[in-house]
Amino acid sequence: MKKFVMLCGAAAMMITAVTSCGNSSSASADSGFGDSLAVALGASQGSRLASDYNTLPEEQKASLKKDDILRGFKQVIMTDTTQQGYLTGLSFGLQLAGQLYRYEQAGIKIDRSKLYDAYAKAFNADSISTEELQKAQLEFQTLAQQAQEKMMEFYRQQEEAAKAAKENAPEAKENKEKGEAYIKDAMAKDPSIKMTDSGLAYKVINEGTGEAVGQNGRAKVKYTGKLIDGTVFDSNSEGVSFSPRQVVPGFGEGLAMMKNGAKYVLYIPGNLAYGVDGTPDGKIGPNATLVFEIETSDVEPGK
Fold first, then answer.
1. Which of 15-19, 47-51, 164-168, 183-187 has the lowest mean pLDDT?
2. Are the beta carbons of 202 and 291 closer than 8 angstroms?
3. 217 confidence band (pLDDT: 50, 70, 90)
4. How far apart are CA 297 and CA 250, in angstroms?
5. What is the Cα–Cα distance from 273 to 263, expressed in whole angstroms?
6. What is the pTM of this model?
7. What is the rounded average pLDDT of the residues 17-44?
8. In b/e form, how buried is each residue of 126-153, taking b as 16+ CB within 10 angstroms?
9. I need a labelling partner for 215 at 20 to 30 A (CA). Which of 7, 44, 234, 253 fits?
């Protein structure tokens, strides 16, 4: 969607470029070449936009209908390029329309008529003092800051609602319950399994020696990752070097505690693993609990 919007925004920039150029043309210009250029330009730009448009989710396509896009596009390119003032105003309006869209998406209603009346009144003024300009800018900046806060709150609520919907999805709820039961049962059977304040459960098979990795350290790690049903989804028997900050929170927390030559088993609940989204390849479902057997070597403790 972001890429698509950027392409659309380029249209406004093209209008600005047109207004900065004169309308001079050669009477002897090759009309055949011009026609070929027109077709090639239209096909190239149309194909490029279509390529991005086709990747949009269906709900976004519903609000960005092709007929509407073509209607707006046609209105712009059919405009008489000798009307430099009109094209300049159209360019400014398109730039401001993007800002209005963001406000209204966040629930801030904008009265377009009042906006235009204020714009026209200010623009038509015979003169404007530095003090008046500063006052207008300061008033807008104050309100814009408040609008920004409202927008941030709106998007935060949207994210929380989306997360809650994912949390309450049947598969996510089932995986969470099964994972909690699995860890609880494992701890009941094996008192050596401990749990941190975050909810990470771990068992020390070999304590190792020296200083722990720490959050800012690194270590060479051999590991095997399994789901609670025993399915192996990832493993590395040769070892790979990384920092606790480069992995999911539960893995990172466990690795940070380990010393050189240590061997742990980590029981990572879904919220400390891949959360409600799981992995894109579907190997790890939403809120899935993971079990990792980890061995460390070549520890470089963090400072």
1. 15-19
2. no
3. very high
4. 19
5. 20
6. 0.58
7. 67
8. eeeeeeeeeeeeeeeeeeeeebeeebee
9. 234
